[in-house]
Amino acid sequence: MQLIACPWCGEREEIEFHYGGQAHIAYPDDPYALDDEQWAQYVFFRDNPKGPFAERWVHSAGCRRWFNALRDTVTHEFLSVHDNRAERPSRTGTAPAAQHAEGQEAGR
Amino acid sequence: MTVETPARFSPLSGWQDRFAQLPTGLRVRELPFLTQLTLRVEPGSAAAKAVEDCLGIILPGPLRAGSPGDVEVLWTGPDEWLLVAPDGRQDDLLARLRSAIGDDFATVTDVSAQRTTLALSGPLVRTVLAQGCALDLDPRVTPAGSCLTTLLAQAPVTLVVREEEPSGVRLLVRSSFASYLATWLLDACTEYRSDTGGRGWDGR
Amino acid sequence: MNTPFRAPGHGRVDRDTTLSFTFDGTAYTGHPGDTLASALLANGVHHVADSIRYGRPRGVLAAGAEEPNALVQIEAPFPEPMLTATTVELYDGLVARGLSGRGRLSGEPDTARYDTMHAHCDLLVVGAGPAGLATTLAAARAGVRVILVDELPQPGGSLLGSQERIDGAPATRWVGTVLAELDDCADVRVLQRTTAFGHYDDGLVLALEKRTDHLGAAAPAHVSRQRIWRIRAQQVVYATGAHERPVAFDNNDRPGIMLAGSARTYLNRFGVLPGRQAVVFTTNDSAYPAALELAGAGTRIAAVIDAREEVPEHWRTACAERGIGIRAGHVVTGTSGIERVTRAHVAPFRQGRLGGRQGIGCDLLLVSGGWNPAVALFSQARGTLRYDGGIGAFVPAHAPDGVRTAGSAGGAFTLSGALADGVDAARQALSALGRTGGTIAVPTTAPLPDGAPTRVLWRVPSPQDGHDGQDGSKQFVDLQRDATVSDVLRATGAGLRSVEHVKRYTTIGTAHDQGRTSGVMASGIVAESLGVDVADLGPTRFRPPAVPVAFAALAGRNRGELFDPVRVTALHPWHVEHGALFEDVGQWKRPWYYPRAGETTDEAVLRECRAARTGVAMMDGSTLGKINVRGPDAGILLDRLYTNLMSTLKVGRIRYGVMCGVDGMVIDDGTVIRVAEEEFLLTTTTGNAAGILEWMEEWLQTEWPGLRVHLTSVTEHWVTIPLVGPRSRDVLALAAPGLDVGNDAFPFMSWQDTTVAGVPARVCRISFSGELAYEINVPAWYGITVWKALHTAGSAFGITPYGTETMHVLRAEKAYPIVGQDTDGTVTPQDLGMSWAVSKKKPDFVGKRSFTRAENRREDRKQLVALLPADEQVLLPEGAQIIATSSIPEPPVPMLGHVTSSYRSDALRRTFALALVRSGTRRIGETLYVPLDGRTVPVTVTDPVLFDKEGTRRDG
């Protein structure tokens, strides 16, 4: 039972966490500018490196916060964890957020 | 058809007799109907300050509970606290807090019936909890004032180590898990049933 | 009953108390402190089992967990298969029999308690022999938190089985002094009868404590019989000792052949003489103390056969004083005897050649091929090993952070070396912990005589060997698996080069003992056979559990009603009182249906359905997930996550919503009510409550952290009671006199805050049945009161409580899908015929882009339809496949889809099903076939909505 260091709660057993796959896969700015293959790359394809891998985890049974981690896929060792709020500024410009205002207008 | 004072029942309202039969090293009682509000606010923000001023408290940092007072504040996440107050305070607190927050961004949600609270005390507390809690509950590691949201056996709980009671622990458990957890606690005490000193049958 | 092989003046058993036991049907006696094996040997019983493949008589080879032969089945007081007689503590009334390799699980339930305990420490020490005790004492004096686990009933380890002295007194006196000091340390926990069996990540060591096994029938029922300790340690010291290994020679498996060190243990710990006349065959110095101590206790040592040319002067002298002859440069080539060894065949062995053989009569043949450090746990912890040619064994090389060995586990085989190493291990562990102090003086021991190195000898050539040296069919390597040298040679002859492959080919090392006596020997024989260096072959991989652990112990208290949390609603006691049968939905217990006396399931469900469609019925809907969404951007978040437009919903109104993954597949559905301008309350399916909250938080926290919105689970804050049927309005009007229940004042898909049965309630007009229906939400504390009030108010209308089965039938008649039953992660809203729930106005939402992927636009996708069996009584099984022809064609049979839901309908007066069918919408009206019980059932494909397609019943 591995320990994972939640940025907020400290080390907890791994069953308190859920895995969220590769980190830094942003929702595309404009999904409709992508052809099917490019879109499929976003939806279905992820890296699978041997060695350090940037991942997302969520402390489901604790503070419920998502965070990013760098984990070695060979040893499973967590090389670092980061509170992703600190790491990434607010991204209100990301689609579909940016398009949303327009949609809401249309809706009204 | 209207009932004058409608009867209410806490999740463990039928368990007093069974709790009463626990070994003397462990006392368990349900604290029913506590007011519980989820507070979400960015720490350090104006809204957080407004909440602190309104309640006369400081929002505790990670893994900590504020000193028990009129309103006890439990840290449950980096921008999330559970406010715990005596029975029947939710309307008053919601109104005061929302008024204090004003147009700032912070939210308060009544979750009083979402969880119930178990008060545990006695020399057996840590031994019994260690049967199902993977965290180190040694007082040097988890001192009074600690507030840990974690798993106890297979139930999600928020575990608060109280300042004022020796070996006092509060367990906040979701209502649907309450009877499972109570069953688990009773079963965990099987070995100590004729024991008074907080040690197992073989002296540990 | 006498015990003829008990040595007077030796051993630590309590001779004042006699225990009775039965083995293979014969009654014997022993004493507290005995193992089953020592008690058998004291009674002169060596033959304990027959081997699994060849049925050869086998005896006790060892004195501990390394024992390969003496497997027993305990019959009483509680049946348990496959224990080693050498680790079963004797108790009064024990009934056991020897096993040929395979045990038998009891057919009776095991009523004993098993439990689990978490523990944390700065330092875990495994093994309470001299090294482990020295480590523990030194660390305890530094004031760190120490846990010492030890597999024996009492501390001392190898000291219990020797006549060593420490600080000028018997070593066990030192053990007692150390224990007394440890007892006074509040931060030291000593666990005897506790075997560490697995080293896992981040310093987690699992250990099995046998708490009451040794008490037999006297074990108190309220105490757990065995306990799994989950020990999280900053530092771990493995002072696990070493296991003696035998040497392979012809017929090396007979009863009476025993490891030399084990014989020494039987004498000194148990006061047992394993034989009257012994031959000692050794490759190293360690067998000499065994020979001398046994001689001192009355065993006649016929000869010491030392494979080495040079025997140290010290041992020569000591043997001469006892009149023991030594034959240097000799080996044992084979044995005679059937039930018991009667003769050892001895020959000179020089330059790889055997000389002339001679037989020596004996009833005991002691063997020592050297010692293997017990590195299984160290290796599990990812410590690396290296081959030490001087001792012919694998020893620790590189230790991972926080893990080290002490004593003979690290190759320090002498007592003084082990003690010094133990103190040093404590010093290193304390240093790693950043602690100072804790040094103890290394206890003094008798000066060591000059020794000579071990001669590494895996096998003695067989006199039967052919010219190619390829026989060894009677030279046993793994005694439990009956695997021989010739099996190993067959493996290498077949081209196998890896010891891992040889292990699997021969099964060597795969038995209960994990090859403790056979593994390194097998590596050595493989190396010889291939002409390679053992160092390059390595041992086979060590994996947990290092000792057998019962599943019951691993399960602990997670069995019976604690197997998995049982989640219940606030209304659960009422359901129980009223005879509900329950269905497990995730961890929830939900009422399935409420049978009346004499009713079948079908009858009860049809009755409940009829009540909902013709009168009034009520159910417990509290398990629906409920998420409060609050903040200025709440509508924006919901617009992005639902396929529908939610931000336009007016306060007071409700909308059905569907959520998709980015792949466009339905992941959940539910209702969304707008509580206030900046507050929504949404419901999820019962099983998805936690998952959908996590999903929403994922998007909110990682993709759109700038949105000002907070999500809060309020699932259990509310009790939710659907009140369903044409008379539901009348019942609600009675229970909520202040509420205008008229259709205009309280239209479909709206909600009202009101008072129901005197309780503040939120009433929603939504319907999962197509009938006029209300959903009454009250804080859970009031749930029972309001439920009972509604039940009372409805009694005049014949109100009927109903369960999940009826709910399913009602919703299926209306083709409302259940996510996870009618969908499986490959179904789009369009496949469900729910294009109406997909906003055309929103430029984007999660899943939308995928709807236009080529695969999702295919017309031959599987779509939700209803199936009506031609025979109105035939109930199709859920999961049944659908084909196009009335006869089943040759495989591969083209499958058109499958049945997702299937019920008997009271309203339709027939059976019906929902199904996902390829091009289903286009096939409406066609007849398809469902293979069932060797025939095919014709079914008509229809529009999925089978009841009240026009929706006329919704408003009552």
TrEMBL record, chain A:
GO terms for biological process: tetrahydrofolate metabolic process. Gene3D superfamilies: Folate-binding superfamily. Pfam families: SoxD. It comes from the Bacteria. GO terms for molecular function: sarcosine oxidase activity. Residues 81-108 are annotated as: Disordered. Residues 81-90 have a biased composition (Basic and acidic residues). This is Sarcosine oxidase subunit delta.
UniProtKB/TrEMBL annotation, chain B:
This is Sarcosine oxidase subunit gamma. It comes from Streptomyces alanosinicus. It comes from the Bacteria. The lineage of its organism: Bacteria, Bacillati, Actinomycetota, Actinomycetes, Kitasatosporales.
Automatic annotation (TrEMBL), chain C:
Residues 571-842 form the GCVT N-terminal domain. It catalyses: sarcosine + (6S)-5,6,7,8-tetrahydrofolate + O2 = (6R)-5,10-methylene-5,6,7,8-tetrahydrofolate + glycine + H2O2. This is Sarcosine oxidase subunit alpha. Residues 473-557 form the SoxA A3 domain. Residues 122-391 form the FAD/NAD(P)-binding domain. The keyword Transmembrane does not apply. GO terms for cellular component: cytoplasm. Keywords: Cytoplasm, NAD, Nucleotide-binding, Oxidoreductase. GO terms for biological process: tetrahydrofolate metabolic process. Its EC number is 1.5.3.24. Belongs to the GcvT family. Residues 862-948 form the Aminomethyltransferase C-terminal domain. GO terms for molecular function: nucleotide binding; sarcosine oxidase activity. It is found in: Cytoplasm. Its cofactor is NAD(+).
